[in-house]
Design a protein that fits this description.
The chain has 423 residues and is mainly alpha-helical. It contains 19 helices and four strands.
Length: 423
C-alpha cells in the first residue's frame, strides 16, 4: 500500500481538473487553535447535556482538566508528527488521519453545494465498507493525472472520520472499564502502583492501544479516558477547519496558494488574547448551540456513531470553504499567486517560478477584523462538537461516576504514545 509521506497531501481541484500534491504538512488549527478547542470543550459539557442532571459530575471532571485537554489536543501534531518523522511507515499512517478530501469520494462539486455536501452523511461509517467501495476504483474527478487515476484511500483521500470513530470507541471502552471497577475503588490508594494503560505499537494489532484488563485499576481506566479524550479533540478540531476537507487544500486553484497556514496559524496567532473567551461565549449562545445541534444531529444509538458524527461535522465545515476564500480575497490578498494547472506540481520544487499569493501581514487590523468572526465560529463549532462526542462516549460507557475524582490528581499522560489506528 502506497502511504503518503511527509505530511498531508496538498491538493487542488477546478471544476474540470485535479492535481495532487504531497509534501507540505498541515497542522489543523495550529497550536493555539487546537488548544482553544480542547480547553473550551472541557467547559461546555453542560451546554450539550440538554438538562441531564447526571452530567453535572462529568462537567466538573472535565472542567478540572481543561488545561490538560488543551495540551492533549496538540499531541497528534507536535508529538506524534515529531516522534514519527524519521519513520516513513508511521508518517504514512498518521498523516492521512488528519483530513478527508471529499471530492475524491463524491466527485466534483455540483452547483447545489448544500446538496453536494449532504452526500457525506451517506458515506458508510464502517471503514471496511469504504475500502471495499472505493479502494482501487477510478478517481471520478476529470483530468486526474495518470499517477492518481485509481483511488488510494490512504494516499489520496484521508481517513479522519474513521479515526474519530476509532478513538471514540476506545474512549467508550475506557469509561466502561472505569464503571466496571467502581466497587471498592480508592483512587488515592491506586496512585501508588499506577501504570499507563495505553500501549504504543509498531503495527496494527488485534489488542489495539487500549484494553480493559483484570488488573487494571479504576484510576488507570480514568487516566486512559482523559488521554484518549484529549487526543480525540485534535481530530474533531481538524474537521472544523474547512481546508481539511478538500482537495483544494491550500487554495492554489484560484491563486490563493498559502491560505491554509495563513488562516489557521498566522491569523489565529495574531488574534488578541480574548479569542478563547470569545469562542467560549459564542459556543454558549443559545441560538448558536441550537444551530450546531441541528447541523450535527445523528442517532447515537446506531452502530459506529463516532464516524457518523464526524461526517456530519465534515458536511457543515465543507460549506464554509467559499466563505474562507472570500475573506482571503477581500481582506488579505495583495496579489494573487500562481494558478496551477491540472497535474502540475512543479511549484513544490521551484519556489521562484511558482509563487503563493502575496498577503498583508496577519496582524494587520483589517485582516483580523475580517477574519475574527469566521475563526471564532469555526472554533466554537469544533468545541461544541467535541463536548458532544465526549458526553455521548460517557453515556455509552455507562455514565461512570467521576465525582470522587475531582480534587484527585489523576496521573497525567503528558506525552501520549502514538495510538496505532485500529481500522
Amino acid at each position: 500500500m502506497n502511504l503518503r509521506l511527509l505530511g498531508e497531501s496538498l491538493l487542488s481541484i477546478t471544476s474540470v481538473t485535479l492535481f495532487s500534491l504531497s509534501s507540505l504538512p498541515a497542522w489543523g488549527w495550529g497550536e493555539r487553535g487546537h488548544h482553544v478547542v480542547g480547553r473550551s470543550a472541557a467547559q461546555l459539557i453542560n451546554a450539550v447535556a440538554e438538562e441531564n442532571a447526571g452530567a453535572a459530575e462529568l462537567s466538573e471532571f472535565m472542567k478540572e482538566r481543561a488545561l490538560q485537554m488543551g495540551h492533549l489536543a496538540n499531541v497528534p501534531d507536535f508529538s506524534w508528527k515529531e516522534s514519527t518523522r524519521h519513520d516513513s511507515k508511521l508518517i504514512g499512517i498518521n498523516s492521512p488521519t488528519h483530513y478527508i478530501d471529499v471530492e475524491i469520494l463524491l466527485g466534483a462539486p455540483t452547483k447545489d453545494l448544500k446538496e453536494y455536501a449532504s452526500q457525506l452523511r451517506k458515506l458508510s461509517p464502517d471503514f471496511a465498507q469504504i475500502l471495499k467501495t472505493y479502494q482501487g476504483k477510478p478517481n471520478p474527478l476529470p483530468g486526474t493525472p495518470a499517477k492518481y487515476k485509481n483511488i488510494d484511500l490512504y494516499n489520496d483521500v484521508g481517513t479522519n472520520p474513521w479515526r474519530v470513530q476509532d478513538l471514540y470507541a476506545a474512549l467508550v471502552s475506557a469509561w466502561a472499564c472505569a464503571k466496571s471497577k467502581e466497587g471498592g475503588s480508592d483512587l488515592k490508594a491506586e496512585r501508588k502502583n499506577f501504570k499507563s494503560p495505553l500501549v504504543a505499537r509498531a503495527a496494527r494489532s488485534p489488542q489495539g492501544y487500549y484494553q480493559c484488563t483484570k488488573k487494571q485499576t479504576r484510576l488507570e481506566a480514568l487516566s486512559a479516558a482523559v488521554a484518549i479524550a484529549g487526543v480525540l479533540g485534535h481530530f474533531v478540531g481538524d474537521l472544523a477547519q474547512p481546508f481539511h476537507l478538500t482537495v483544494n487544500f491550500d487554495g492554489w486553484e484560484s491563486g490563493n496558494g498559502g491560505i491554509h497556514h495563513y488562516l489557521e496559524e498566522a491569523v489565529v496567532e495574531a488574534l488578541p488574547p480574548s479569542l478563547e473567551d470569545e469562542v467560549f461565549r459564542r459556543a454558549q449562545e443559545s441560538g448558536f448551540r441550537k444551530e450546531q445541534s441541528r447541523a450535527l444531529a445523528i442517532n447515537w444509538g446506531e452502530p459506529l456513531p463516532g464516524s457518523r458524527f464526524a461526517l456530519a461535522l465534515a458536511e457543515q465545515s465543507y460549506l464554509q470553504l467559499n466563505e474562507a476564500l472570500r475573506l482571503d480575497n477581500q481582506f488579505a490578498i495583495i496579489k494573487k499567486g500562481t494558478i496551477v494547472p491540472s497535474g502540475d506540481k512543479s511549484f513544490l520544487f521551484d519556489r521562484e517560478k511558482y509563487q503563493p499569493a502575496e498577503r498583508k501581514p496577519a496582524a494587520t487590523p483589517e485582516v483580523l477584523r475580517g477574519h475574527r468572526s469566521f475563526v471564532t465560529d469555526r472554533l466554537a463549532s469544533g468545541s461544541l462538537a467535541l463536548a458532544a462526542i465526549w458526553y455521548q462516549a460517557w453515556l455509552a460507557g455507562g455514565s461512570p461516576k467521576v465525582a470522587d475524582a475531582n480534587g484527585i490528581a489523576i496521573p497525567y499522560i503528558l506525552d501520549v504514545p502514538f495510538l496505532w489506528p485500529n481500522y
